[in-house]
Amino acid sequence: MLFLIGMGPGGRAHMTQRALEALAASDVIVGYSLYIELLGDLVAGKEVVSTGMTQEIERCRAAVDLAVQGRAVSVVSTGDPGVYGMAGLTLELLAEADPQGRVPVEVVPGVSAVHAAASRLGAPLMTDFAVVSLSDLLTPWETIRARLAAAASADFVVALYNPRSRKRRRHLEEACEILLEHRPAETPAGVVRNALRRGEEVLLTTLAQVPSAPVDMMSVVIVGNRSTRRLGGWIVTPRGYPLSEE
């Protein structure tokens, strides 16, 4: 059995009941070292396969090999396993190792980072939105730029994953420049670091001010569309309901 589990932000409080059940039913838990640490006592008594950053292929292949051998294996991802998580890669590797489809698989959804961040900002995702990762490790930067331009021109609310790292200092500025071509500088924006985790930080700001905000790889940036508003301490993108009575 192979479980592809979304841990949400990582703590038990925001993990689904099904995720907890799948972890309990597993012999082996496979994940990035930080994710294993976030699970705490949920891995007690389990065999653990843990690797560092950039070793995703190695740990997913190990999980597949164990599952093919008949072990009950959980591959954990923060957020949702199918949203920049390990579900896709694991299924690709499983298709090679088990072409007959003998290993049963369950994808267990989780609270994604964009939804966790949005919950701390109010209701910025009430209408159509796009999620774009600014990491060009696996996707060419020109492709990312094209996707940003398309989302900006279509007036999507835009959420940015992996907005800034030690090596990628300019990508966030370029992303904001693209968005500024299609919406005002004062467009409401928010930065949430460690959403729903220890050390959480929430900043309400504007599109023009995002590049100077304290942003790193643990942050999600959400930029509103042309209808997004600041309502007190919240960011809201109206759904379009008529509020006045005729």
Query: Quaternary arrangement of the chains shown?
Result: single chain
Give the radius of gyration. Answer: 20 Å
Mean model confidence by pLDDT = 95
Give the N-terminus to C-terminus distance in angstroms. Answer: 58 Å
H/E element sequence: EHEHEHEHEHEEHEHEEEEE
Tell me the name of the CATH class of the largest domain.
Alpha Beta
Residue share in helix: 25-40%
Which stretches of 5+ consecutive residues score pLDDT under 50? none
Determine the structural class based on helices, strands and strand pairing.
alpha/beta
**CATH superfamily descriptor of the largest domain:** Tetrapyrrole methylase, C-terminal domain
Biggest sheet statistics: 5 strands, parallel
Describe the structure.
By secondary structure, this protein is an alpha/beta fold. It has two domains: 2-108, Cobalt-precorrin-4 Transmethylase, domain 1; 113-236, 2-Layer Sandwich (Methyltransferase, Cobalt-precorrin-4 Transmethylase, Domain 2). The chain is 29% helix and 24% strand. The strands form three sheets. The protein has a five-stranded parallel β-sheet with strand order 3-2-4-1-5, with helices on both faces. A five-stranded mixed β-sheet has the order 7-8-11-9-10, with helices on both faces. Helix 6 (141-153) runs parallel beside helix 7 (171-180). The longest helix is centred in the first third of the chain and has 13 residues, at 56-68. The chain is elongated, with a radius of gyration of 20 Å. The N and C termini lie far apart (58 Å).
Give the arrangement of secondary structure elements.
Elements: E1 2-6, H1 17-25, E2 28-32, H2 33-39, E3 47-51, H3 56-68, E4 73-77, H4 87-97, E5 105-108, H5 113-121, E6 122-123, E7 129-133, H6 141-153, E8 157-161, H7 171-180, E9 188-193, E10 201-206, E11 219-223, E12 229-231, E13 234-236
Parallel strand pairs: 1-4, 1-5, 2-3, 2-4, 6-13, 7-8
Antiparallel strand pairs: 8-11, 9-10, 9-11, 12-13
